[in-house]
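Hi P.,

Sorry for the delay on this. The queue was packed all week, but I finally got your sequence through. Input first:
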Amino acid sequence: MKDLIYRSAIDLGFFAVGVASAERLPELDHLNSWLKKNFDATMSWMRKDPALRCDPSSLLAGAKSVICVAHEYRFARGRDYHKIVKKKLIRVVDALKTKVPNARFKTCVDTSPVLEKALAVRSGIGWRGKHSIVIHPDRGSYFVLGEIITDIEIEPDKPVENRCGDCNKCIEACPTGTIVEPYIIDANRCISYLTIEHEGPIDRKLTKHIKPEQYGCELCQEACPYNKGE
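Then the structure:
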């Protein structure tokens, strides 16, 4: 089963694949604390059923495994990556159905209420960087994630070691202090959020850090040694 999963996913262009158990994630306290501090800014959808976000079975009853994949980074360039990754995930599912036709699957790409970064870390795709983004040991953090939740019981992969160590380059690179402490992001100050998600006026203390017609920000990722091949 794993050989089929890896082979079909890699053939479709995913550069990393991992399998995680579908057990409830332990991030609920962290998520609730983050929401209590209003670090979600105006992204009100993050407040809907936080407990269910930590439980893959809320999206697929009887879920036992989550197949996690990583795809090359593309956000504001070319076709919508949600559609591209979704179509490829469906093709992986089609391949699996040839072996287990009665199995059930749920494909997710960013928009589903699931903690995809936590699942990617659990599956061994990478570790959570201090900028909160998943880092792959060889490919850095320039990639998007996708998941296939299934009721098939598949042997899970092991998480990889967090290799950030005492490096704080991502924190130091952020001009607005978005990374309030390692792994904690205040979206209210994030240039990426402000130029993509936020509606309405922006605090003048922050606008001085935003270039005209800027869309998004990757300064924390640009500073990461794993994106420089160091």
